[in-house]
Design goal:
Layout (H helix, E strand, L loop, with lengths): L12 H12 L4 E4 L5 E6 L3 E8 L2 E7 L1 E6 L2 E5 L3 E5 L3 E9 L6 E7 L2 H10 L14 E5 L2 H12 L7 H17 L4 H8 L4 H14 L7 H7 L4 H12 L3 H19 L4 H7 L5 H12 L3 H18 L5
Antiparallel strand pairs: 1-2, 2-9, 3-8, 4-7, 4-9, 5-6, 5-8, 7-10
Helix pairs in contact: 1-3, 2-4, 2-5, 3-4, 9-10
Length: about 325
């Protein structure tokens, strides 16, 4: 089969991104796309930080500006800088520049750590040195070539039939460009098999699958072949919390999802995610979200109903 030529990119990749993202995010919100690892968003006004979980991904702003707060670190990004996160971590996301006339438009591109590891292993010419870091997120300079590769990615949404053929090529190109960026050391730290970052990533994957089970931190450290004190140190460096705090965060957010989407009551959701005491669950829920479970879920449903009434037919 002859190689397929890449899609052309306009002389202004940011304009391409804004045009396509605007078409696929017609109102304020987050929108899935026809590409599984790509979502787009629109914000029509500045907004204070809201809690979210950040998967290994790149967040790009095509118009406007945002910032991410992880632990005590603030990561501002805009049309010249991209945000990269290398682990599943809790964070606070804020919109710092947006309006009805010039909304904040952007995309979220999920990273494939396996693709990163393959590229690292195959290409001996990729840079290996970089500044030290003590976090699982960073802000990098958006080079022209990386910007163009994202423009090619977003243009695939205008040619759905080409996605199965061209998506793997563009996805691999973006990962390669990221490994040439100033955030390459961070990505190598997580993707390189055997590194401490890779071991913490494996531990987090286990915790996500087993959040309802009792957590023996010493056993988990041994499972990923790390000493207990080293495991604690690197886990906190990369997630801004201890393993037990991370497990609690996973449990509370899953319980919130169960109450909101599956209509479980608070006690049932608490037991399902591993709590033995509904009262303890309620106390920790209030500390995490600021409101008792029943009231919080009622307010979320009421907000969703009001939004649906204003913009009927949205997914």
């Amino acid at each position: 089969m002859a190689a397929t030529a890449p899609l052309p990119v306009s002389t202004n990749p940011l304009a391409t991104l804004c045009r396509v993202i605007g078409a696929h995010a017609p109102t304020a919100g987050d929108f899935a796309t026809g590409i599984a690892d790509l979502s787009v968003y629109r914000r029509n006004a500045p907004a204070p930080p809201i809690t979210c979980i950040v998967e290994p991904s790149v967040v790009l702003v095509a118009q406007g500006a945002k910032e991410m707060v992880i632990g005590g670190d603030v990561f501002p990004y805009d049309t010249t800088r991209f945000l990269v996160t290398s682990l599943n971590i809790p964070a606070n996301s804020a919109v710092t520049m947006a309006s009805d006339a010039a909304p904040c438009l952007g995309l979220v591109f999920k990273l494939d750590l396996r693709t990163l590891a393959e590229l690292i292993a195959q290409d001996g010419h990729l840079p290996v040195n970089g500044q030290p870091f003590h976090t699982s997120a960073g802000v990098g300079e958006l080079s022209p070539k990386l910007l163009e590769s994202f423009a090619r990615l977003i243009q695939l949404l205008e040619e759905p039939a080409a996605i199965p053929v061209l998506w793997p090529l563009v996805q691999r190109e973006i990962h390669y460009r990221l490994l040439l960026s100033d955030q390459a050391p961070l990505l190598r730290h997580i993707a390189s098999v055997g590194s401490k970052g890779h071991r913490i990533a494996k531990a987090i994957d286990w915790m996500k699958l087993n959040y309802a089970a009792p957590l023996r931190v010493d056993e988990l450290a041994s499972q990923v072949q790390m000493g207990l004190s080293t495991f604690h140190q690197h886990f906190r460096q990369l997630t801004a919390m201890s393993p037990l705090q991370y497990q609690k965060w996973l449990r509370l957010n899953e319980a919130k999802r169960l109450m909101l989407n599956e209509h479980l009551d608070a006690a049932t959701a608490a037991f399902k995610v591993g709590y033995e005491s509904p009262s303890q669950f309620s106390r920790e829920y209030v500390r995490q979200f600021g409101t008792p479970p029943k009231r919080d879920i009622a307010e979320l449903r009421s907000s969703a109903e009001r939004a649906a009434a204003v913009t009927p037919g949205l997914p």
